[in-house]
Specification:
heterodimer, A: alpha/beta, 2 domains, 2 helices, elongated, B: mainly alpha, 9 helices, 85% helix, 0% strand
Chain lengths: 152, 259
Amino acid sequence: MRIRGLELAVGFFMLAGALALLVLALKVSGLTLSEGSRSYKVYALFENIGGLTSRSKVTMSGVKIGHVTAIVLDEDQLMARVEMAIDSNVNYLSLDSSASILTSGLLGEKYIGITTGADEEMLQDGDFIEDTQSALVLEELIGKFLFNEATE
Amino acid sequence: MFTKIQALGAAGLDKLEAFGRSGIILSQAVFAIPGRQAWPLFIQQLYSVGVLSLIIIIVSGLFIGMVLSLQGYTILVDYGSEQAVGQMVALSLVRELSPVVTALLFAGRAGSALTAEIGLMKATEQLSSLEMIGVDPLRRIIAPRFWAGMLSLPLLSMIFSVVGIWGGMLVGVDWLGIYEGSFWSNMQNSVDFSEDVVNGLIKALVFGVAVTWIAVYQGYDSVPTSEGISQATTRTVVYASLAVLGLDFILTALMFGDL
């Protein structure tokens, strides 16, 4: 009889541990089970990525449609080449879409915002987004402002 | 001069020998997975090592989460980004605090008890009696305890994280008035399952092996006197705590240090 009580307690303990892991997975890390995480790769060249890092989000009208997977320096163009994984159900981005690096809030994290164009053809896996706008770097902005003040 | 160098060499050899003996115990305990016969022994150990540690883990997890939330809020509110408290509490708990603090508490609560129990068994010659009647004490005494400790620590660490995050929410959302939606969404945006939660789980597993190994070995290798047992128990807590903190740095460097 004593071993039965023990087994019951141990069973509840194991259950609590497994439940805790489940809570961490679903509630804390926001893992969704039904995520058919199929995506396609799109590239873009930026003059300056500011503070963009991999795993930054890629949005369209503020809605998250993918994330940055890699950032490397392109040796031919001497610009930053950003590799993005876009969810495969978002397959209506036209070929002349533009990508810009935006900041959420004044001090917040950097993310990529995508605006579609009017082209009939859609972005495919491996395509490049031609029209890009770099991150706003505060020092450059201040520098420009001071320069304008000085020339006036 | 030479006698001193000789003493140094002897001490080094002693340490090395002890390390070798503990390695033998570890390998034998690892391969003696509790089978059907040893099942009741294993359950018994899971109960005394895992279930009985639940209270201290839950209480300390709750308070650590609450303190983290309170401290984070007082700093972050100056920058107007108090909704990042959820992210801070969850990341620091899942990545670092819950495996480390759980392992430290576990070493104090369960590790010392294991050492004292096994040490007393040795002192009262229960271990030698077992051997006399043809029962392998490694299989019957050491292996169930080792496996129970190794399994309990990750479970306890997960419970610690959840309770800590709940405590953080209690203070942050219900008391200090952070908006609940941004608290959770910030947390979910920044915590990655495979990167943060699974790495925390791996840490807890490694700490579980280290702490139980040290506890079991110190008991098995103790000097069978009352003084020897007290020394062995102290050594368990000290060595296990140091091992956990040292291993934590190495594991963090490997997991999050982009090596």
